[in-house]
Batch of 3 targets.
Target 1
Amino acid sequence: MDQTFSIIKPDATKRNLTGSINSFIEKSGLRIIAQKRIKLSKDQAEKFYEIHSDKSFFSDLIEYMTSEPVVVQVLQGKNAVKKYREVMGATNPENADEGTIRKLFALNVQENSVHGSDSDENASKEIEFFFDEKEIVG
Ligand code: CMP
């Protein structure tokens, strides 16, 4: 079965939306097979978002991602990466389809409530970054 990596971001944990977002995920048919609530360190956030280090929004992104706890998750299901990206909606909530997590909950392009991997290769890397094999119990 395919897997993807998800983060419920600070704007969402702060507004007590973890359960509402998990409900969206589960209704879509994806299964939450691992999750933990953590506070990202600056070092972790910088490493995780290294690919965006040359972007103008990088320092704001790091400040935001370390501002409140996040919930990191492993989601499992058929075509999990593609499926979760559909459930999340577009990065910018202004462009997100009706019925998606970001359309309903995201505040703006940065505080966009959730992260999901963009490929199977990145999903494996991102899962490994946050979870030990023994933490993923199915
Ligand atoms: P995410 O899918 O986690 O990937 C990178 C993150 O950077 C993105 O969600 C947003 O939180 C943030 N981001 C992307 N584009 C912008 C932008 N144009 N301005 C500010 N933040 C952005």
Note: Residues 120-130 form the longest helix (11 residues).
Target 2
Amino acid sequence: MAAKGLFITLEGGEGVGKTTGMDYLEQYLLEQGVDLIVTREPGGTRFGERVRNLLLEVQQESMDDMAELLLIFAARAQHLREVIEPALEKGRWVLCDRFTDATYAYQCGGRGIDPAAVSLLETLVQGALRPNATILFDAPVSVGMARAKDRGELDRFERESNNFFDAVRENYLARAAQDGERFRVIDASQPLATVKESLETVAVQIVEAARSRGAL
Ligand code: T5A
């Protein structure tokens, strides 16, 4: 049976440079001969992209925090069954822009939902599947928000307060500190060239580890 692929997630607050970093990482891994797919959350399927629109669009009526959480996991269930799990089974690597660490950071850190509720849904929807490696792009909230604002109209999350985003960042950093084996933290406040260098160091480590385990 073919070896299972690697599941790599990119995380971080608003506008920190995940999408830019993803393009760079994808290019690097392709050059190393990795067979991969790139996807994102919320989204990644037709159903998930519709849920994404619901979650990100600015609405007249407020969205209940639990409704938001369940929508995120509904999109995730579809994404796992339709895209992520089949790719991993075929031995392909999956690069995903945000995954369940974002739910802990935003819905628990930001919204104040009990992490036990997220943990229950995580087990229900994902079973034992967790990312093999997670790259956390970390920058002060003011840096990420300035980049996001430069890009134009802010979405429903981007309109949250600085306190909300400080709590998101703290939650991410605490999770990274608890699981140093899975997380690699990159200082995303640096100029793009420096961020790319850090990303390359991380990518080399991931590829070498995969080669030494015979997974590549
Ligand atoms: N969400 C998601 C939850 O609440 N719970 C969940 O479980 C999940 C999965 C998704 C939203 O959903 C929420 C979180 C989010 O609010 P998103 O589009 O994935 O939205 O998240 P965003 O952070 O909004 O993604 P962005 O595309 O806005 O930000 P990126 O990808 O981090 O940043 P990027 O690469 O687009 O860069 C932003 C700008 O900065 C420049 C880029 O050129 C770009 O213009 N830039 C730099 N400039 C200077 N120096 C650098 N080092 C730079 N790096 C990038």
Note: Residues 12, 14-20, 41-42, 72, 97-98, 102-103, 106-107, 147-148, 151, 157, 188, 191-192, 195 surround T5A (CB under 6 Å).
Target 3
Amino acid sequence: MDRLFYFGSNFKMHQTAAESAAFLRAVAHAANSNHQLFLIPPFTSLTALTPIKGDIWIGAQTMHEAEEGAYTGEISARMLSALGVDLVMLGHAERRQHFGETDAALRRKVRRALDHGLRVLLCVGETALEHECGASAETVVRQLKIALRDATTADLPRLLIAYEPVWSIGVGGTPAPMPDVIYAVGAVRGALRALFGAAGDLIPVFYGGSVDADNVGGYVQIEGINGAFVGRAAWTPEGFLNVFNRASTAKG
Ligand code: PEP
């Protein structure tokens, strides 16, 4: 199992380029070799952040599956790669819900991103209905098996997974109870093993969903979890550092 601890935030549709750069400068001192920090700002902030990122990974929030073409408003893997971004997040629940991102499209996006040398942070998680009906494991296994269908063991060093129950993320979300996270992360780990054998254990898995300074310590100590992925509670440098410090202390 990869012992490195990961901590990062998706800014969603918040922060201008100048605000994102100020944010990065304010948290940069927390980066060191015991953990990997990452920030996933809007596209418009990427060029401001990549030249000053130091050891912090900078990620894009999505990309189009095609190499190029008549897709007005979209961004390609080649464009992201040329900007020097470290990763692309794919399959965030808001992309699946509001922009119709399907498992089949994610399969193509994952392959495209990997072909351009990008790390992929693949988000998986069940909806409230799937959770209520006891289908959490089935959902995350399906999402992983389809999206990672064309990934090979050679791609493993560039794969990262965020388990984010849809009912837990964003405004109105509630922190997932520990037993639910343990169960779903067990299913994620099982799917990664089914796909890649024992090498699948090396893929870092994060928990995301209403993480804050008070609950992060519990989540990051769950077996099979290698990091925390935080939205609202980490949208100020102070909040980011506060949650990060609590996570780091809990990890020891
Ligand atoms: C998210 O939406 O990916 C997320 C983790 O958000 P929050 O922490 O605000 O629930």
Note: Residues 10, 164, 169-170, 173, 208-211, 229-232 surround phosphoenolpyruvate (CB under 6 Å).
